[in-house]
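Now for a typical sample entry:
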Amino acid sequence: MAAKKPAEPAAETAPAKKKSKLLLIVIVLVVVLAAAGGAAWFLLRGKPAPAVAAAPKPAPQLFMALDPPLVVNFQDQGQLRFLQVGIELMAHDQKALDAVKQESPVIRNALLMLLSGQDAKTLLTRAGKEKLRADALAEIQKILHQRDPKQNIAALYFTSFVMQ
């Protein structure tokens, strides 16, 4: 029976050695995985992605009608002709439209002089109307820039155009 007693402690140490080996393998595995994860994070994070440049927000389009419509008469080959034009102005700043209201008599006068000097044959074409539109915008901008160079009307549109 004495031979059996020494065998029992050897049997108990074998499972303890297996547990310690298993624990050691788990610890090494955890350390290796942590190191690999840290290395991957460090290498893959790189430089921060550049911020996407936000597209500039378009300025609001503000419109104002010149009321009442402008009516002029002019001679065309000995005939008396009439032209009635509805105009809307577009700006990106309310201050510019306020300046138009302030200078309304001067602007209306300049536009009436411009319109009354037109040729009916030219105004029948699209190119003639576009040129008149550009000239009218230039007149308004000239008047506003004399008052305050910062004020700007971006566009002029004909909302009605009647010739008789």
Summary: The chain has two domains: 1-53, 62-163. The mean pLDDT is 85. The first strand starts at residue 62 and ends at 76.
